[in-house]
Amino acid sequence: MKYRDPAVAGSFYSKSKEALQSELTDLMPIAQNGGLDIKALIVPHAGYFYSGAVAAHAFSYISELAVKPTKVILLGPNHRVGLSGCAIPSYGDFITPLGKVPVDRKLCNKLVEKGLVTENDDVHTWEHSLEVQLPFLQHCLDVFDILPILVGQTKVENLADILSFLLEQDDFLIIVSSDLSHFNPQNTAVQMDEATIEKIINMDCDLQPSQACGCHALNGFLSFSQTKEWNIKLVNKANSGKLNNIKNEVVGYASFVLF
Question: Which of 75, 152, 189, 191 could form a disulfide with 250 if both were Cys (CB 3.0 to 4.6 A apart)?
Answer without folding.
Answer: 189
